């Protein structure tokens, strides 16, 4: 059987979100993160559907009323009651593949980024959504510990990832690099793995997820974070990452088209002062648009312009993510795309 890991630009049924619970780590920022997630839903619903798992029936009813007031068409929303630990759908959501041309959703093990945070409910969320008859395609459980934010696919057999995450002993300590590549080959039909050995963001809990650093925009193009401030503590590692990307080659031997993304000024937590992981690489590709995180920074406009060159046929939609980085993620981390054919038809 031939598997193929779908790229993010593959046609989608929906974007999946996990709504924050009032008892989660978002409690001190609940109104702010809910406002940000509302803006994501409104933006996405102009192009496609949104699936939202919510912590209670009361939340479901509230959001139905709220989004009706915001002009979101009811047929663009799927609200499913399913409790979670946190909101990071990118890492606990299913990953879509084609197997002999048929769509399958793979449900990997999620451990809260190597046991850093409680993740029991997040780890079972995909299975519980499947039990509601939400999905039209098979959902398969996998034993590998893997988060969606840790991998990037070009849709043609090449996977981009980081050593710091996939080879971290807090994920799959029994597997070395060769064994990890074999598992990726088996699950995704991967023919090549491009390993980044450098690059990190302060305040990132994920052990350098690639979606905070470098992203496929198409099979020939990679957008990446560039630090242009030699006094910044990120400068050396991100410059080394830039050199690695320049040395990578496509399967046919040609270099990638590289699009540098600007470096916003440092953002710090207002409570304890630690640095937050602001990154423009955490954009989201949907049908006809690219949603881009912004940080009320002068670099925002340059990031939007850079990504417009990468996606000339897409609308470029800014989303204020200053509230999101307070919990050490950004826009892409909150979302998971569900490829076309994922959702069952409403009856």
UniProtKB/TrEMBL annotation:
<protein>
    <submittedName>
        <fullName>Agmatine deiminase family protein</fullName>
    </submittedName>
</protein>
<dbReference type="Pfam" id="PF04371">
    <property type="entry name" value="PAD_porph"/>
</dbReference>
<dbReference type="GO" id="GO:0004668">
    <property type="term" value="F:protein-arginine deiminase activity"/>
</dbReference>
<dbReference type="InterPro" id="IPR007466">
    <property type="entry name" value="Peptidyl-Arg-deiminase_porph"/>
</dbReference>
<keyword id="KW-0378">Hydrolase</keyword>
<dbReference type="GO" id="GO:0047632">
    <property type="term" value="F:agmatine deiminase activity"/>
</dbReference>
<dbReference type="GO" id="GO:0009446">
    <property type="term" value="P:putrescine biosynthetic process"/>
</dbReference>
């Amino acid at each position: 059987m031939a598997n193929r890991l779908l790229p993010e630009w593959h046609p989608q049924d929906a974007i999946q979100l996990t709504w924050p619970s009032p008892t989660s780590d978002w409690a001190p920022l609940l109104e702010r993160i809910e406002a940000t997630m509302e803006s994501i839903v409104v933006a996405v619903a102009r192009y496609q559907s949104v699936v939202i798992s919510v912590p209670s029936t009361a939340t479901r009813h509230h959001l139905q009323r709220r989004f009706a007031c915001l002009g979101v068409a009811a047929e663009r929303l799927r609200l499913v009651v399913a409790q979670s630990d946190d909101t990071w759908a990118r890492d606990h959501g299913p990953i879509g593949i084609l197997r002999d041309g048929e769509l399958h959703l793979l449900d990997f093990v999620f451990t809260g980024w190597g046991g850093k945070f409680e993740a029991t409910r997040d780890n079972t969320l995909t299975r519980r959504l499947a039990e509601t008859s939400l999905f039209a395609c098979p959902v398969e459980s996998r034993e590998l510990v893997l988060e969606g934010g840790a991998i990037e696919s070009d849709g043609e057999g090449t996977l981009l990832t980081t050593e710091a995450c996939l080879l971290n002993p807090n994920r799959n300590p029994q597997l070395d690099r060769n064994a990890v590549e074999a598992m990726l080959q088996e699950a995704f039909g991967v023919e090549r793995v491009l390993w980044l050995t450098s690059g990190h963001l302060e305040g990132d809990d994920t052990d350098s997820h690639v979606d905070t650093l470098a992203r496929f925009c198409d099979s020939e193009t990679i957008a990446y974070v560039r630090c242009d401030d030699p006094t910044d503590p990120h400068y050396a590692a991100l410059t080394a990452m830039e050199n690695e990307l320049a040395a990578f080659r496509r399967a046919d031997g040609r270099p990638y088209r590289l699009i540098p993304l600007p470096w916003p000024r440092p953002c710090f937590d207002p409570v304890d002062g630690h640095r937050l992981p602001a990154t423009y690489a955490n954009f989201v590709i949907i049908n006809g648009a690219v949603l881009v995180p912004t940080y009320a920074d002068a670099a925002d406009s340059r990031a939007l312009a850079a990504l417009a060159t990468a996606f000339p046929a897409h609308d470029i939609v800014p989303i204020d993510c200053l509230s999101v980085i307070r919990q050490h993620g950004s826009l892409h981390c909150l979302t998971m795309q569900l490829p076309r054919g994922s959702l069952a038809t409403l009856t």
